[in-house]
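Notes on consecutive records. When two proteins share a document, each keeps its own sequence and its own token line. Never mix them. Below: protein one.
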Amino acid sequence: MAEIKDPENTVIIELTNGNVVIELLPDVAPKHSERMKELARAGAYDNVVFHRVIDGFMAQTGDVQYGKADADVRMAGRGGSDLDDLPAEFSKLPHARGTLGAARSQNPNSANSQFFINFSDNDFLNGQYTVYGRVISGMEHVDAITRGEPPASPDKMISVKVAADV
């Protein structure tokens, strides 16, 4: 596992095959970084499926409303949290392999709880979706997430924790 330099701004996602360690970027996207920590600390991301996983593109998860693995996940991808949507925090950071992006609707200010991890450099997303983190360890586990829109048997985040709390 990579050295964690800032435990307060590092999130650990436990997957079936191993942990994915994500360094949040509060200097770039403070509201998005804070939201992820808030939902992680509340346990909201625990047991949420990856509902949209496109080979060569990205793995999307974080629907805390409809994406719980022990519920009917047919609506996964349409919900969010009970918190307000976030304003876009676009930056010059590219959507490179391993970066974390905020999923949203057509409205740039509609990101809430859903996010995606880029499998490859997706420059066409630059300046259109908020980048607020990057995988610093465990990208091989992200690469192994079951593909599909939605996957027939989706992988899930077993738990999501802020490293400072572990």
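Protein two starts on the next line and is unrelated to protein one.
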Amino acid sequence: MSDTSVTWLTQEAFDRLKSELDHLSGEGRADIAKRIEAAREEGDLKENGGYHAAKDEQGKIEARIRQLTELLRTASVGDAPTSTGVVEPGTVITAKIQGDSTKFLIGNREIAGDSDLDVYSEASPLGTAILGLKVGDSTSYTAPNGKDIAVEIVSVETYRG
């Protein structure tokens, strides 16, 4: 049983993530192994803060490697979908949420890279509520805190990364 979903990525985002994965899988693993070995040589492992910190970092690196491997394995790489005024993954949305205008990207956080643009997953409560809506459409969704949040789609644009 798999709940794998396809994630749209720009070529730039795919290349950036592939480079990160290559670094972590090679040089990153080698560096952390050296740090663990050096800390291990310091003696008693029960009270060795350097050893435990290095092991924690190793766990984080391995988790990121698994995350990137799965993301890249299931990625659909290409140009952002050309906006037709319909909310879909890879489009930039301007919406009035509870009356406040907000601009964000629908898709995976990894797409935006260093951009200041907020990103909401299409699987998030907001993303699920607005997928398929057109400019001018309104809806509401239930936030994780249980409140109903009103949303009106103001514009849908092609993501320009």
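For the record: Strands lie at 7-9, 75-77, 91-97, 100-106, 118-120, 138-142, 148-158.
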